[in-house]
Design goal:
disordered C terminus, 9 helices, Isoprenoid_synthase_dom_sf, 64% helix, magnesium, (E,E)-geranyllinalool synthase, magnesium ion binding
Length: 206
């Protein structure tokens, strides 16, 4: 028996474990968080959308590895149901579902008066976690390589940071030039001025 896409997502969004991170934290964020929403049958819509998005993000990045391991994946399941499809088309299909669920998720988060009865702080925490999952799964997963993992461990513990190379990439603007202040000094020569004006007066009189 092979599960349908909907059946797989209903199970896969739980096995990804995103709800185990976000729900306990919501209880600490607000005392008004509904306790009944901690039960699997009563998860809020925003939580379910977050869980589904986390699963879809994972599946669009890990389908190659899971294909080798013989594990189920949303991309591989769509490819199996559509023999004429190509892997790129199946990835695009799953990303389309992800985009729809993300839009629906954002609508609930950003609406002040909506069907979701949840404190605003908990909604924003859902949004922050969604951003983290998008950032994590949309970046290159270097931990699939043991060599890259070992290098990261060495950088974190043993290898000191190369500050010189990091600083060389930074643009440091030159110090501003000192402005030259033009000083103008003037001296009022009363005798010379009077003599000059007196001469003009004589010429005018002539």
């Amino acid at each position: 028996y092979r599960a349908s896409l909907d059946e797989y997502l209903d199970i896969g969004m739980i096995s990804i474990g995103a709800h185990t991170i976000i729900l306990p934290a919501c209880c600490f964020l607000s005392q008004d968080y509904p306790i009944e929403k901690l039960k699997p049958d009563n998860y809020g819509k925003i939580t379910k959308l977050f869980m589904s998005a986390a699963r879809l993000l994972n599946d669009t990045q890990s389908y190659q590895k899971e294909q080798i391991d013989g594990k189920m994946n949303m991309v591989l399941l769509h490819l199996d149901e559509n023999p004429n499809a190509k892997i790129d088309g199946s990835v695009a299909y799953v990303k389309g579902i992800l985009e729809e669920k993300t839009k629906e998720f954002l609508e609930i988060v950003l609406m002040d008066d909506g069907p979701e009865e949840m404190p605003k702080s908990c909604k924003h925490f859902h949004l922050s976690c969604m951003k983290v999952f998008h950032m994590f799964f949309n970046s290159t997963n270097l931990f699939d390589s043991e060599e890259e993992l070992l290098n990261d461990i060495k950088k974190a513990i043993y290898i000191p940071p190369d500050l010189d190379s990091q600083m060389s990439d930074l643009y440091i603007p030159p110090p501003p030039e000192k402005e030259e202040i033009l000083q103008i000094s003037a001296r009022w020569d009363v005798n010379t001025t009077q003599h000059f004006l007196h001469g003009i007066g004589k010429e005018s009189a002539v």
